[in-house]
Amino acid sequence: MNTLALPSAITTFPQNKHCIRRVISPRAALVEAKPRPVPATRGGGSGGDNVPVTVLRVREDSSSFSLSSRDRADDMQAEARAMARAVNASVYTPEYLAVKYGSRPIKVLQRALEIFSGLGSFAFKLWLDQLNGQLDQNQRLRAVELRQIFTRLGPTFVKLGQGLSTRPDLCPPAYLEELSELQDALPTFPDAEAFTCIERELGRPLDSIYSSISASPIAAASLGQVYKAQLKYSGQVVAVKVQRPGIEEAIGLDFYLVRGLGFFINKYVDIITSDVLALIDEFARRVYEELNYVQEGQNARRFKKLYADKEDVLVPDIFWDYTSGKVLTMEWVEGVKLNQQDAIERQGLKVLDLVNTGIQCSLRQLLEYGYFHADPHPGNLLATPDGKLAFLDFGMMSETPEQARSAIIGHVVHMVNRDYEAMARDYYALDFLSPDVDVTPIVPALRNFFDDALNSTVSELNFKTIVDGLGAVLYQYPFNVPAYYALILRSLTVLEGLALYADPNFKVLAASYPYFAKRLLTDPNPYLRDALIELLFKDGRFRWNRLENLLVQGKKDKDFSAKDALQPVLKLLLGKDGEELRVLVIKEAVRVTEAVILGSVVESYNSMNELMRTLIFNGNATGPFAMSTAEQESMLELRAQVIRIWGLLRSSENFDPSILQPILQVLQEPQARNLGGRVVGGITQRLAARLLQQVLRVPPSVSAPTS
Known about the structure:
This is AarF domain-containing protein kinase. The protein is an alpha+beta fold. The protein is 54% helix and 8% strand. It has 27 helices and 17 strands. Strands 2, 3, 5, 6, 7, 8 and 10 form a 7-stranded antiparallel beta sheet that branches. A hairpin with a 5-residue loop joins strand 13 (381-383) and strand 14 (389-391).
């Protein structure tokens, strides 16, 4: 079985707290396809003999250990105590950093020289490239060099590089791709310091908390490192994350210097249109939030509450009694990194199933509740042995504003329908552009790129291609991409990248579109309701093929409800502001009713022998109601399309004929009765005209319906 490997070095705590035995052997990798069988040990008799025991499996049935079984009041009190332990957690304050490091010029100068020697040499090479006209030619080489420089400069710059990798408005595509490869793995700090930190932060000896703990970390990153332990009070296996000593001092000094650079860029560098100082401050606030592990625990709890209701998503629980500002104790999750395809498949699982779970969960995060995991790289996504997708590391979270959630869905719809004017206007709602910016020059750029990209069907669109193309547009025009949108692009690009390992033909937009279709059909949000009407009606005609496609796609989403699909437009149709829509609906209702009635007549006519046709239709060679062959075919196609759509609604998993009840109820309202009268009147006039043409055998003057 492929699991998150138990570290080979185990620290055990016998009953005599002054006697600590360590079993030292080479450290295991963070994830192994077939981990070596390693005995775990726990406290035994007074002699401290090591007794091999089976390592506890978590989540087979975690009900006996899960915090959800605890009394809620006790849990809230434990969380309050954890918050009290983190009361002195650092908060990013530019003014405080200015005061603190403004009085330490030697320290600032030393670090400035270190940074300048790295970034200065890089800037000099860029200048030479510009002089020699080789900026484009050497772009990939310089991107690699910048990634290496950030790695050498340490945690702050690793985080900064990761942040820049999500900013298409700041970096050309080659830099985005190279910086996205930054790994924040750093050398570990001494275990003795980590154990001392745990005891100091939690206010109790290590052996009173754990019956065993790994003697070495199983993972180390820029801000901290993780140990595997077993709680003494319950036997629960947990992950213990300990903050790197001195990290606040290191990143504080770096952000003080980087902020000074941002001020310089804002004032003297014209080619960068974004407010660099604001971006640095926003990024620094997020990094400082990551330093508060109680905040991370609260993020995990909120994420679990919102998204772990789905059976295929797992979010580890938090143990507040063993958590502080610098120590985080959470439920241990066995699993394999999502980019280790062979190991996953040896467990009988499919990477694409897990990626699809990730995409659907991400769409809910981004567009339903707006609270999302902002750092979903492969190390933070695990495939568990029972086929669930586990999310880890909740230090960096973000939120999508409510207005933007609807605008993103509308933007995708406008893109698919090549409505570039509407796409450009969406950037106001997305907060990409200030209202005084004219979007007219942007429309041709969107058309030039997307006309080419959209020659493929939606199911063939590659998300990375779309992001790269959009990034090129953003880079050329005065866009200010909000942090949440850049993180959304990064999130979905990472998931598509993981899927491409398993299937080179996988397209994240194809997997996402059923969700967009479902939301468009069922969401009462006015913005989405208007987007739906805009999609379905064009030049005064209803596009039944678009409705059919939306229903086909929406049904692929397991949460799609046919009942909900009728409500938003119906409410607008009968509302006080729905007159324009009512005119279109009346016209279409007449047209569809005529197609259903006369289409049935045409079918009957075609099935008759010559004698019956002569007797009933008076020998009319052009068929019933003197319709041409083209007109008959058009009417039959419309009728067939309407029948198919009704079939799609009926075949919905939760279809109930009672969905028609709201229509019957609203028909009692005066406005609805007026609408019904107008429809009946229109149908009567059309059928009367057809009948008169048949009696007089006058060639039809009524235009043929089209689908």
